[in-house]
Amino acid sequence: MNAEMQRARHRQMFIFLLVTAGMLILLGRLYYWQILQSHSGYNLAQLAQDEHLQNQILDAPRGLIYDSTGHVLATNVIRDDVYIEPVQYSIDHPNYTQNDLQTLVTQLHQALPAVPVAMLQNAFSTGIARGQWAVRVAIGISDQQSQQLQNLQLPDVFLQPRTWRTYPGGTLAAQILGFVTQNDTDNHGMYGIEKQYDTLLQGKPGSFTAETDLQGNPLTFGPDSEQQPVSGANLTLTIDSTMQNMLQNALANAVKQLQAESGTVVVLDARTGAVVAMAGYPTFDPNNYGNYANQLGCLNSEGVYLNPAIDCDYEPGSTMKAVTMSAGLNQGLITPNTTLNDQGCMSFNDAPTVCNWQDLAYGTETMTGVLIHSANVGAAYVAHNILGASRYYPYLQQFGFGQYTGIADGPEDAGSYRQPGDANWTISDLTRQAFGQSILASPLQVAMVYQTIANSGVLMQPYLLSSIDQNGHVTQIQPTVKRRVISTHAAQLLTGMLEQAAVKGFAQLAQVPGYSIAAKTGTATTQGISDTQTEASVVGFIPASNPRFVILVKLDRPQKAIYGSTAAAPLWGTIAQQLVWYYNVPPDLPL
Amino acid sequence: MQTAPKPILAARRRRQLHPFFFRISPVGLSICSVLLISLMAVLYLSQLGQAVTANQAIQTLHSRQDTLAREDQDLVYQIAQEQSPTYIEEHARAMGLIPADPKSVIVLVIAHLKPIPAGDQHIQP
Fold first, then answer.
1. Is the ipTM of this complex over 0.95?
2. Could you tell me the domains of chain A?
3. Cβ-nearest to A587 among B70, B107, B124
4. Half-sphere exposure for A210 (CA within 13 Å, toward CB)
5. Closest B-chain CA to A73
6. How many A/B residue pairs have CB atoms within 8 Å?
7. Nearest-5° angle of CA A505, CA A457, CA B119?
């Protein structure tokens, strides 16, 4: 082998070694990136996958809420949020001037007049300085504004659609419905039906995974997977929008006219316990719930978002006398004609003296007379001298006092009362509870007492939800009997007594021509404040002969008229009149 | 003296030299290969183009579907708003109407009329 050949061999060997070394280095780097780094902190495999794969959460539409006649009470609309892209703007316009920015901002302001130019300019400048890729400058703009912005095709401005919960009736049934929080990440029901049935209404979000093109549009070829969202259930309530609206207007007018602090009205179906209408005042507009965050209802003790019919307890006053009479009648210890000697005040050996309103004396007085005169003495006499604690308290428990009604899973005021065995209970509690003091109950609890009497002694489960439609699978909610509290005979006797109380007693302003009513007024005062600061109420049912509706009206601290008979009774009559008219209830009395 | 190959061996040799049943020169084979590859490429691009077009059509339909869903929700809201008693009352008042007083309703009592069974909604007026 000559020298020339040897040099050639060496060159070949050198090149071979060089290529081999290069290959080894490449192999090493390949191992480093593909094996060592692919699942390390850089998570390169995931980043590479994210680059061309789109994972999207598909929102499930929230279920609608209807009233009993099919009118929509809560629905959804899609509105756009407006975003600007400061960093992208600075990349697209590296040599931009304030004038360029001003031109863009002015155009944006023309489409969004509510957003000041200075704010938009500041959002761009601050965003560029802080390196923000997207800054939201407006939320939930109108369709016209969305269209205008789409037509303008402004650079580095984009629209992001978002679903909003809306309530077409505004304040209609607001305290029954509640509202849905409109946050970026967390939309969930707050208060009322929206909270109680949040899981059902929300549905189940779906997902979508697919390869995308350069613009991020999913490709029809290549691997993909899609799980369709399951829409939220549609709920139908028992309330009737027309009656609810009438009730709210009538209550608002009464509260304003009588200069009361607040008020509550409950209308129930006497046979089923279904809520026909339920209103509180003051109330709120769930479309703008944030504006009411500092407002209070229920004698300024609770937030205005709460439903006062179930969340605002009070001393029922004389409306409780029906409970005392129920206990006596059901145990056969009294009849409507049982008498007592009412001297205006009655002393007890073991309890403080009880007096009637203005110490009025009625002499020999029947039990019906006790209800007609709304005599505290008569009620205390029945509870203390005839029934006693052992035969009285089981009826408070049976009627549901101190217990949740079960109408809501959310906040509900169970009320409270002292009974034997409790630390502070005295016999004075018994005599006072007989006429509605020393006991707290929600308006719905008191209404359910009268529903029991109207329904021949059977307490029903009050309910607001009539049916649930889960994507075509409809579940009807049937009326449910809770328990029999008093006998049919006792209920009939008491109905007759309450009819007399309405005709001859303090509920005369509640009368509806052509219809018999069974009703009782109540005027409760609070210890420690003036006796003129009352909670005036009337509760009863119509028609008394064949009850269709139970109505409770309560006005808190009315100033122009302070008694149940003068403040609440006219409103009760107005509502009862509207109900019989609207539902075509035939008259049961000669006109 | 050279002997002629046996017939089977001769055929095997021919097959090695000319694998096809027809004879083709190397240049011809190259041209055919290029043409075949080009045809495959055209077919692939055609299919890809069709897929992209279909994809764009689907995107357009998706977009249209979203728009229609949005319009549908807006219409549901509009109907709900216009059926709402609050809205109706507001517009009725604006038209000069006033709420009827239920106490002014005149109930006509027709003698000997069979009473309507309570709770029978179907035959009530």
1. no
2. 86-155 (no CATH), 241-582 (3.40.710.10)
3. B107
4. 16
5. B80
6. 88
7. 90
